[in-house]
Amino acid sequence: MREDKGIFYRIDWVVVGLYLALVFIGWLNIYAAVYNENHNHIFDLSQKYGKQMIFIIAAMLLALGILIIDPKFFSQFAWFIYGFFLLMLVVVIFSGREVAGSKGWFAIGGFGIQPAEFAKMATVLALAKYLGTLDVSLAKFRTLVIASAIILIPAIVVLLQHDTGSAIVFLALVIVLYRAGLTGFIPLAFIVLPVLGVLALVLPKFILVAVLLMVAGIFYFFSDRKLRTIVLISTIFIGSAGFVFSVDYSVNHILEPHQTNRIHVLLGQDIDLKKEGYNVNQSLIAIGSGKMFGKGFLQGTQTKYNFVPEQSTDFIFCTVGEEWGFMGSAVLLILYLSLFIRIILMAERQRSRFSRFYGYGVASILFFHFAINIGMTLGMVPVIGIPLPYVSYGGSSLWAFTILLFIFIRQDSYRYDLV
Amino acid sequence: MERIYADRKYIIIGFFLLIGLFYLARLFYVQILVDKYILSANNNVLRYVTQYPARGLVFDRNGKLLVYNEAAYDLMVIPRQVKNPDTMALCHLIGIDKQEFINRLLKARNYSPYRPSIFEAQITRDSYGFLEEKLFLFPGFYVQPRTLRKYTYPVAAHTFGYIGEAGPDVIEKNTYYRPGDYIGINGIEKSYEEILRGKKGMKIRVFDVLNRDKGSFREGRYDTTSVAGTDLYSSLDAELQEYGELLMTNKKGSIVAIEPQTGEILCMISSPSYDPNLLAGNIRKKNYTKLLQDTVYVPLFNRALMAMYPPGSTFKLVDALVGQQEGVLFPDTRYGCQGGFPLGNGKKVGCHPHPSPLDLIGAIQISCNAYFCRVFKSIIDKKSYLNTRQAFESWRKEVMSFGFGKKLGIDIPGELNGNIPTPAYYDKYHGVNRWHSMTIISLAIGQGEIGITPVQLANLAALISNRGWFYTPHVIRAIGRKDSLNEAFNTKHRVIVDQRYFDVVIDGMANVVTGGTGKIAAIDSITMCGKTGTAQNPHGKNHSIFIAFAPVQNTRIAISVVCENAGFGATWAAPIASLMIEKYLNRTIKRKDLEERMINGNLINGKTPDIERGQGNILPD
Q: If you count Cβ atoms within 10 Å of the first and of the last residue's Cβ in chain B, which end, N or C, has fewer?
């Protein structure tokens, strides 16, 4: 391992190509989203697209930097990096700047840096490091507790910054745990509970509980009817029923008012299109008006005349939908899915457990951002302000996602040397 | 050991693909399957600004401008942009009170806080002058130019009609019209609407989220320019129309004059009338209500087309023509008259004293009732018909060929059919076939169930002067170019009476004026044919009727005059017709005494109509 084989040695060009394509698409659409006739030069540094270009160049330099670093560095310093960003997350609560209601920003020069974006990468490193240790097994309770703690500690700190969106993202790492052997019930619960929650808000609760009871009955009927199974089924049923009855209270009393509103908007209840429902409605209008082939680059009227708020950041997908239509949107979706699947396949070819779990972590984080962000613009998920990886405007997120991905690319290129 | 979990990658990849497909399906639904989003998108940014074309002008037969447009302004409001307005100042400028201001603003806001609504419609150019200077003080308000119909002469209101905003029923049926558009509601404004209105243009402007105008959409690629309406050349003679209305001051009735060679209407007066300027612009609604509520003078009622009168003795001309055509009457046919025509039950159709017996010319000249009752009886009782019914049907067909009993098809809406009774009517009244010539003898002298409109009467005079044919009377002689004749009216209608039978009738009519019942109408310098009529009116004094044409050779004007409740035809209708002919042919009136007597004659219970003439203002309550 001492001999360096060059920074592009066995690099996976497919994933690099997908990355570059997304970054380029992002830049073009940021240009379209903030375009105005007075500053129409795409390299104008006073405008977001000019800044994004600098962010992109910086991201490329970061990527190159990572490709220079010894691939073993990341596994060896994983705990240190994790600890460092955990510290940053705490520090930023006390000395950070508040942007859009969350206190997660350091002001450095004219730019804001958001440690939460980097903390995801650090958490993936730490989790992979821990799961990569030879004697861990998620069948053991102790392992599960430690792994959960690695994920939840930064998530809770981020939550303290009032950045709910970023905090939720950490939950995506359950996919890594699942791949590492966690029982399928928990990720299943992650999918079933939100669905159950929505149903609980829409349907009468007693009907829902009756249905749950029927389901439990069917499971019991086909089960081995041992005491252990009966206890398990009963526990799940009671838990679900309890959840159903607590949803209303949680939504109306635990969540903050704007979050409550976002859930009502999603469910089509009490929508005031001029207030709570405005973003989603305008987002759907912009996307829907793109039709099959879109209105063309810089021709999107909703985009150009600022009908969608936050369009260069969280709602960047509206620009794609309006100007490039269904075809363009579909191409973007396919690029993302290709990226995720490519990362999974790369992860599976790792000989090092650390590298494999790290790869899964990368895929999970990127996928979760993708699913929440696009789901939000399409009105399928409540409005949660998290960026679309590589495409949304913003230095922190672009750099953090770049580092996240290139650490993996670096690990992958040395997959035969790392065990 | 995690190798045993390697298959879980399929579940994870499967889950990713599932979400991806789910979003793709959602995109397909939002972008391809439903249209509401693209409609909303256009709603968001595009404002369609209508370019209103100038409506076509109307000229009279001598090239005088009758109807034109004047600039007017709609005061528009965008409620969201209204900021701390000095309400009282604006109220003062447009003459409304504060409550009205609040109501209007609320109404506009309810329509849309972002879109312009009309706040005050059709502000005249004069009022606009004041407003314009102060408008910058009222953010959210702006003016949109419109046009206002103006009338050079305060006459011919019924012919011109009026325009108003297209109502919801019109908009529903005709996609051309949008709320706020004007449409002709009556008169030629209605019948020539599609020619006069021109073509609206549309400018598409782009507005951003703060409702700021960002310029034209795609450099105006989809903008259309408006096309001005086509001008109309009316056959009306403005001076004659004005003179006729003057003569009809304080009289109920109608004057219709036609140029027989062309069917062009020279004037059409329905009295009492109103100044057409009263129904133009934002004063229209108030004034219309007042005119509509005037049940004494009924000024909105166009008597020339919509009033049916029994034609009285003027109908004897028809008897004379049909009788000859049927071969039961000859110029030298003589009938005696001993004070009337006996009905056989001790009663008779009375007649005034005159020499007896008379031939046809004499009977027309003297207007002998008995003579024409016998003519009518001989038609209905003619041996060659199987029965009364068949004879009557033949008579009816011939009479209707004169343009009676059905709409002439004049180019002004609202014309009535008039009435020539059907056999079925008599069947119902007297029993099937239980009626005969004596039962319906009053038709002979133009009384009974017969109903004829003033324009049909004028057309009778015209077709007699033409010796048996007429063009459908019309008020628009040319469209667009002065010399291009209105193609809708170039069909010659022939009467079912041979040309040769007309000479004797025309001679008789000439004698009416030279030495008969219409002597009062005689003018030294002009040869004239006429016929008096007195329509019995069960509700009051008889209606005075006169039809005439002049000169006898190369006739230029045929006229009908009806004066309601004015007594004999000779008393009012004949002098008025005569003055009209003199005015039209000589352009000046020599008989000042007669003229003055006619103008000052008040036949409406001595009451003066309180219609303000020529002021274009709001009527007094």
A: C
**What is the rounded average pLDDT for all residues in chain B?**
88
Three-state SS at B405: coil
Alpha-carbon gap, residue A31 to B204, rounded angstroms: 25
Confidence at residue B608, expressed as pLDDT on a 0 to 100 scale: 40
Element (H, E) at B206: strand B201-207
- What pLDDT is recorded for position B592? 92
Distance from CA of B117 to the nearest CA of A (A): 20
State the total domains in chain A: 2
Phi first, then psi: what are they for B475, rounded to 5°? Answer: -105, -15
B-chain residue closest to A134, CA distance: B1
Flag whether residue A302 sits within 8 Å of chain B, measured between CB atoms: yes
Query: Is residue A163 a contact partner of residue A104, using CB atoms and an 8 Å limit?
Result: yes
How many CB atoms are located within 10 Å of the residue A37 CB? 8
DSSP structure class, residue B137: G
Residues A307 and A397 in one domain: yes
For A221, the domain range is: 189-254
Q: Is the pLDDT of residue B620 over 60?
A: no
Are A246 and A295 in a shared domain?
Answer: no
What is the ipTM for the molecules in this complex? 0.92
pLDDT surpasses 60 at B616:
no
In a domain, A99, yes or no: yes
Same domain, A276 and A138: yes
- Give domain status of residue A100, yes or no: yes
Q: Is residue A8 part of a domain?
A: no
Q: Which of B187, B188, B170 is nearest to B179 (CA)?
A: B170
Residue of B nearest to A357 (CA): B2
Q: Select from B282, B261, B57, B255 the least CA-distant residue to B156.
A: B255
Q: Do A307 and B45 count as a contact with CB atoms less than 8 A apart?
A: yes
Residue B156 has pLDDT above 90, yes or no: yes
Residues A278 and A395 in one domain: yes
- Select the residue of A289, A307, A378 nearest B209 (Cβ to Cβ): A307
Alpha-carbon distance values, B547 to B376, B457, B512, B534, B562 (Å): 21, 7, 11, 11, 9
Q: How far is CA B206 from CA A147, A274, A311, A324, B218, in A?
A: 55, 20, 19, 21, 9
- pLDDT for A2 equals 45
pLDDT above 60 (res B614):
no
Which pLDDT tens digit goes with each residue over B204-217?
887 776 667 777 77
Last residue of a domain, one of A228, A254, A280: A254
Judged by CB atoms closer than 8 Å, whether chains meet at B45 and A325 is answered as: no
A103 pLDDT higher than 70: no
Of the listed ranges A385-389, B1-5, B271-275, the one predicted with least confidence: B1-5
CA angle B219, B225, B228 (to 5 degrees): 165
Best A285, A345, A366 residue to mutate vs chain B (most B CBs within 10 Å)? A285
| H or E element at residue B490 | none
CB A171 within 8 A of CB A191: no
Q: What is the DSSP string of A197-217?
A: HHHHHHS-HHHHHHHHHHHHH
- Percent of chain B at pLDDT > 70 equals 96
**pLDDT tens digits, one per residue of B450-464:** 999 999 999 999 999
Q: Are A395 and A354 contained in the same domain?
A: yes
B15 CA to chain A: closest CA distance, Å? 10
CB spacing of A344 vs B9 below 8 angstroms: yes
Please list every residue in chain A whose beta carbon sits closer than 8 Å to the beta carbon of residue B44: 282, 285, 301-302, 305, 307
Question: Looking at the structure, do residues A50 and A194 belong to the same domain, yes or no?
Answer: no
Q: Is residue A146 part of a domain?
A: yes
pLDDT at B490: 87
Q: Position of tokens 């408008």? A: B135
Which residue has 């989603």 as its token pair?
A280
Task: Please give, rounded to a whole number of angstroms, the shortest distance from the CA of A86 to a CA of chain B.
Answer: 29
